[in-house]
Design a protein that fits this description.
This is Bacterioferritin-associated ferredoxin. Keywords: 2Fe-2S, Electron transport, Iron, Iron-sulfur, Metal-binding, Transport. InterPro entries: BFD-associated_ferredoxin (IPR052371), BFD-like_2Fe2S-bd_dom (IPR007419), BFD-like_2Fe2S-bd_dom_sf (IPR041854). Belongs to the Bfd family. It is built from 5 helices and 2 strands; from the N terminus they run ββααααα. The chain has one domain: Orthogonal Bundle (Arc Repressor Mutant, subunit A), CATH 1.10.10. Helix content is 50%, strand content 6%. It has a two-stranded antiparallel ribbon. It has 86 residues and is mostly helical. The protein is globular and about 30 Å long.
Length: 86
């Protein structure tokens, strides 16, 4: 069985990201909240976006749920990577 890693920093696989998406995570921030993918170096954020089948949202769109705010406050690298992707 071949594992395709999305986030090497935390060892998160493509299958895990897809499972979190099936469980209701629909943004990279929600994926980060679920498994930390994207919260270290941030290089996997665009891959996570692709797996979720979405492109970067325009600025000013409705913000994510409040539970992800705690992740972003604790993980400024993710916030920076997501801002750059937008």
């Amino acid at each position: 069985m071949s594992r395709v890693f999305v986030c090497n920093c935390f060892g998160v696989t493509e299958a895990q990201v897809k499972q979190h998406a099936q469980d209701g995570a629909c943004t990279p921030r929600q994926i980060a909240s679920a498994c930390k993918a994207g919260t270290d170096c941030g290089s996997c954020v665009r891959r996570i976006q692709a797996l979720l089948g979405r492109t970067a949202q325009p600025r000013g769109e409705v913000r994510e749920r409040r539970d992800t705010a705690a992740v972003l406050a604790a993980e400024p690298v993710l916030a920076k990577a997501l801002d750059e992707a937008a």
